[in-house]
């Protein structure tokens, strides 16, 4: 679980560093397993990205995800922001759902704040299409958000690319290494017929 949480941390703390000096993070984690099946239902991961003192020292990110804790899928702000990025200059908040963002809030130490809202592109009014998941449906003029991922997955091989335009293969590999490390720390193993390692 938690690929969106991890991706956000890597966008902020890994890919912003120089490719010559950045290093994979150290990983400390806890998970809660669903009792009947042993599947991970909640995870907390602390990532420490090493940097030397001249660069400002280590960077730390905390990724949390859970099937049990409600997310603010209807954007009513009940569960708070899905992402909080904090620095010495302020805070950026990304509101749920994280895969279909429609709102970002930013707060700065000098007292300024901004709130940006936008709708998702979609099939348009009159299409008679209602996108959604389970009981959560969105107006026919809005998409569900994951189409960008699907488009990139389809376009990459047709354009002769082995990686995405926005997340390089190196980054994807390190994120998968982090997920493997979390599973190893908690003796969580997938059946061999669905996991292949080289």
From TrEMBL:
One of its GO terms (molecular function) is oxidoreductase activity. InterPro entries: Gfo/Idh/MocA_domain (IPR050984). Keywords: Oxidoreductase. This is Dimeric dihydrodiol dehydrogenase. It comes from Penicillium argentinense.
């Amino acid at each position: 679980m938690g690929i969106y949480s991890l991706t956000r941390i890597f966008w902020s703390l890994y890919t912003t560093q120089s490719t010559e000096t950045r290093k994979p993070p150290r990983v400390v984690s806890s998970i809660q397993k669903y009792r009947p099946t042993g599947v991970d239902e909640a995870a907390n991961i602390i990532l420490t990205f090493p940097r030397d003192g001249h660069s400002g020292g280590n960077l730390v990110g905390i990724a949390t995800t859970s099937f049990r804790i409600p997310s603010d899928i209807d954007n009513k702000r009940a569960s708070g922001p899905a992402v909080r990025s904090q620095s010495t200059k302020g805070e950026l908040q990304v509101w749920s759902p994280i895969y279909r963002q429609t709102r970002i809030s930013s707060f700065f130490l000098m007292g300024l704040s901004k709130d940006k809202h936008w709708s998702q592109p979609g099939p348009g009014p009159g299409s008679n299409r209602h996108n959604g998941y389970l009981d959560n449906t969105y107006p026919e003029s809005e998409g569900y958000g994951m189409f960008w991922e699907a488009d990139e997955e389809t376009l990459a091989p047709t354009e002769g690319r082995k990686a995405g335009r926005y997340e390089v293969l190196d980054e994807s590999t390190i994120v998968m290494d982090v997920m493997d490390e979390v599973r190893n720390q908690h003796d969580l193993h997938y059946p061999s017929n669905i996991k292949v390692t080289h």
